[in-house]
Amino acid sequence: MKDARCHFDLPLNVKTAKDRQEVETRITILKGYINVDLEPLKLANKHLLGLLYYYIGQLDESYDTFKSILDEDPTNLNALANLVHVCRGILSTKEAVEYENIRKQVFAKTDELIKARFKAEHAYALAFEIYHSVHELRRYHESNDMYDKCLTETAGKSEIQIERGTWMMCKIWNFKKLFNRNNLKEQDPSKNLKMYDHIMDLLLQIQQNVPENSTLAALAWANFGYFFWKKPCMTSHKPGCDDMSGIEMPSIIKGTEMEKYYDDPRSCFERALKIRENKEVLELYGSWLLHKTDFDTAVNKFSRSIALDCSDSNYYSYCKRAECLSIKCQRAIAPDKRIKAAESSVDIIHDLELAVKDFELVVRVNPTAYAYRQLGHCFLLLSKGGNDKRIRAKALAAYQKGLACLDGEKDSTLHFKHAECLKALGEDTQARASMQRSVENQNPQSTFDKDIQTLMKWYIELYKHGSTEIIPEAAFWFKMAFSKYKCETFKKLTLRLIRRDTDFFLKLFGCLWKDASPQLEEFISDVLKDIEDRLSHSHLHQFLSSSRWTGFDTSAKEIKNPGAMRPRNKKGYDYDFFIVHSSRDQNWVKFSLLYHLEIIRNFKGLIDIRDFKPGKTILENIEEAIRHSYKVILYITGNFTESDWCNHEAQTAISRALTKREKGSIIPIREGMTTVPNFLSNLTNICIEGVIPETDLEKLVQALDE
Fold first, then answer.
1. Structure letter (DSSP) for residue 219
2. What number of other Cβ atoms are within 10 A of residue 407's Cβ?
3. Would the pTM count as exceeding 0.85?
4. Who contacts 375 (Cβ-Cβ below 8 Å, separation ≥6)?
5. Cβ distance 606 to 625 under 8 Å?
6. Which of 80, 96, 438, 646 could form a disulfide with 412 if both were Cys (CB 3.0 to 4.6 A apart)?
7. Is 1 helix (H, G, I), strand (E, B) or coil?
8. Strand runs labelled E in 189-240
9. What is the rounded CA–CA span in Å between residue 75 and residue 48?
10. Any bridge partners for residue 669, and if so which?
């Protein structure tokens, strides 16, 4: 990255902020940050505040903020450069020239320290987030590279150890974001260990060079506790696990005072609190206590942090306190699935109401899918005190807002909780669709199997009530889950579920067998061997001998016919869309895409295996389908590109669009890295990896409505 002249030249996260509200919430947070205990960061936060004012059009506030920095530090190069930019923005050209001349004079006479501060303020701004994005990780690395230059240029200046220590702590904060477990999974383990060693080195330097009673010393001890807890290569980070030992100690720690604390994070946190009761110290300590399931003590630590700063800028403490209370109440309610009518119920309801209040503050300041999911969960727990549909509706609204916050990210837990809430409100079809989305969004080798377990239970209930047509649909989701979960975990789950209804699973396995991969065949065979001795008659053997499990006819009968359903389009077309796809991809089209668009979103679709009319040629059916459909969806996969029929249908659709000059009538959905045919390359497509991200799903719905 080239050296920036001012903050406005930096590739900041703010330039990609999605809306004004996100910038305004960060302004509120920054106003709290200006009063931080670390003096060198006060001006750095003011620069960011002036920058954000500028981006939302409050140019007078931006001007005043940068002027106030000059009042405190007349040689601040960033304040002078930023004022030049703002003055040009308000067309005060003469003043801009005046500040530019002053900046040049200061720069010509300045020493290495002022230049280092100039870069450090840029490094701090570079790592600041308006909204979370996994694609912005490079900024943390670039920020740390800039801090390294600052530290190199000021090496040996003992009179600014607090300032240098602050820059080191900022580097550690960047590392902490990179150290997040979700980000580490994709990195080389050796890089993780190298990063960990670097963090240990920085903390030791801070500890050795700053006064023992300073805020930085307290933060160093607290961060030692955090990183002694969050060791690299740990096997588990589930709440309540106790796996602090057994990880090889970094060589840089051996022989130092910190060696004896390596397996004792609590002592590090306690030592930090004795030095200074700081917000970050309390937050780190509380997070570790939450991990240890010491909920009451964790709540105490987060409450003490809130007492130090009850403003919106301390939203993290509010969030963690609410999380502690939510988990604590969940465990108290779980046995009966309802709040007991006992003395403890008063405490549970009080804790849940406080958690709701905290999460409502959090989503106002930092609206994320996670925060809305937690808020919805608290509402759902509160509703278990009675049949209050109003509270359940609030839970449903929170989950819906959480789904709207997903920006290409997967959150299977949010879909799972959303499904539970819909089920509680009696919205069975919607609940099933949301649970299906949870299974779709699972990561490979997942161990969280509650979603597929619940979904199969719901299918079994439908089957027992005579809905035998759901077997192919259930088989599709079972097969998808098989590809998502660890084999041993999934086998144990399957054996538990079979006890509920053996007949259902025998039919489901029969449906799966004809298209099963060798791995799935082996899995089904192993499961059947385990249950064969429990069958009291020859039911299984009769089933096996029936055409070697030819299964069911999965053509069109299991796809619900829209019948008299009215199309949503207002253009007079009989159908809202026609899906062009390869027959090899029909299961995903039928049970995921078509199900969601027709059953959940109430569109009226047209699909070949259900709606093509007998007696007409395929070409006639294709042309009629395109002529009577408002939009044409192309599901482009490797199978699609190899199919002559798919290519013909796509070209016919394009021909109609060109003839009628209809823009946006063709919507391509591309699977993974599939190469799009040349004649479709000029169309913007939705790219998916086995599942349509929530934001792209909304884009698809909007495209169908336009």
1. H
2. 16
3. no
4. 356, 359, 360, 362, 363, 398
5. yes
6. 438
7. coil
8. none
9. 18
10. 635, 686
